[in-house]
Design a protein that fits this description.
This protein has two domains: about 5-150, D-amino Acid Aminotransferase, Chain A, domain 1, CATH 3.30.470; about 165-325, Alpha-Beta Barrel (D-amino Acid Aminotransferase, Chain A, domain 2). The protein is α+β, with helices and mostly antiparallel strands. Strands 1, 2, 3, 4, 5, 6, 7, 8 and 18 form a nine-stranded antiparallel beta sheet that branches. It is about 20% helix and about 30% strand. The structure holds pyridoxal-5'-phosphate (PLP) and 2-OXO-4-methylpentanoic acid.
Length: about 350
């Protein structure tokens, strides 16, 4: 049995029992293989190591009050991995196999799915890498798909407590016609330097502006952004941000709660008009934003000065969590019960 202190978990890696793998060779994916090894052996000239042929996903499984395990919107993650694969010219992993692989990983690591009361979850990380040996810059013809899982707590240490973000104009995460809309390792590599500066200064993350004009809000390093004003949920539409499945879900839930939804370019100055703001994503869930500092412009936008999340963030957070943990009916068919 485990002696894991579920309530104290942070967002980190913990060894679990099994992972699942499939190999693409001669134009075909192999049947899923179960592995208990944490290691991957590959050729020194693999395309993932040199030219960034890599894409990944992140989704979660939750244990309900009824002890049943629920996986949130895995089909959407399967489809996004396919989009990412097309973006860096990798073989696409079939949706049906992706779903089977995720179910297999969760089942085999069931003892790591945190109990309902802990508020923690099992984070599932599918990834796809190019493994053909080549030195010319061109797409490979061999790939490896893997899924592992690890129990996690909140992405930002404070959990559902507002934290500050920073605007930094001297770094871009992704270009308008680049790879921002897909989930590939390169985007995260490009965000590390600015992310470190933000952390050193005490911020949770960077809030990136559009790379071309620096006029509009893009997203945070690891999550989408939204602002709330006049009972309206406002989130950026941009050619360089990841289409977040959490954001997409929150837009549906907001409408259900009688909150208007706007997905459109959001000028930086509009920050001054928001009553609340948040970062949203699988890892971040909703991480309320206390303040955004625009250091170069010497401006500070404050959304919470008393350390508590705003009422709309709270309503949306509770609604999303209720569906994920099975406290509320899954009327949109987002949840797969194991
Ligand atoms: N934006 C970025 C850059 C991310 O890494 C993530 C995390 O996956 C998100 C947004 C949120 O996406 P999702 O809600 O699908 O997890
Ligand atoms: C996620 O929310 O799943 C992410 O991938 C964000 C971050 C951990 C990269």
């Amino acid at each position: 049995m485990n002696d894991i202190n579920w309530g104290e978990l942070s967002f980190g890696y913990m060894k679990t029992d099994y992972n699942v793998r499939s190999y693409y060779r001669n134009g075909k994916w192999s049947e899923l293989e179960i592995s208990d090894s944490e290691q991957v052996t590959m050729h020194i000239a693999s395309t993932c190591l040199h030219y960034g042929q890599e894409a990944f996903e992140g989704l979660k499984a939750f244990r309900g009050k009824d002890r049943k395990i629920r996986i949130f919107r895995m089909r959407d993650n399967a489809l996004r991995l396919q989009a990412s694969s097309r973006g860096v010219k990798m073989a696409e992993f079939p949706v049906e196999m992706f779903e089977r692989a995720v179910l297999e990983v969760v089942k085999r690591n069931e003892r790591f799915v945190p109990p309902y009361e802990s508020g923690a979850s099992l984070y599932i990380r599918p990834l796809l890498i190019g493994t053909s040996a080549q030195v010319g810059v061109k797409p490979g013809n061999e790939y490896l798909f893997m899924v592992f899982a690890t129990p996690v707590g909140p992405y930002f240490k404070t959990g559902f407590k507002p934290t500050p973000y920073i605007i930094i104009r001297s770094f871009d995460r992704a270009a308008p016609q680049g790879t921002g809309t897909i989930k590939i390792g390169g985007n995260y590599a490009a965000s590390l330097a600015a992310g470190e500066i933000a952390h050193e200064k005490g911020y949770s993350a960077v809030l990136y502006l559009d790379a071309k004009e620096k006029k509009f809000i893009d997203e945070c390093g690891p999550a989408n952004f939204f602002g709330i004003k006049n009972n309206t949920y406002i989130t950026p539409r941009s050619a360089s941000i990841l289409p977040s499945i959490t954001n997409k879900s929150l837009m549906v839930l907001a409408e259900e709660l009688g909150i208007r939804v706007e997905c459109r370019p959001v000028p930086v100055e509009e920050l001054a008009t928001f009553e609340e703001a948040g970062a949203c994503g699988t890892a971040a869930v909703i991480s309320p934003v206390s303040r955004i500092d625009d250091i170069e412009e010497k401006k500070s936008y404050v959304f919470s000065s008393d350390g508590t999340p705003g009422p709309v963030c709270l309503k949306l957070y509770n609604k999303l969590r209720a569906i994920q943990y099975g406290d509320e009916e899954d009327k949109y068919g987002w949840v797969t019960v194991l």
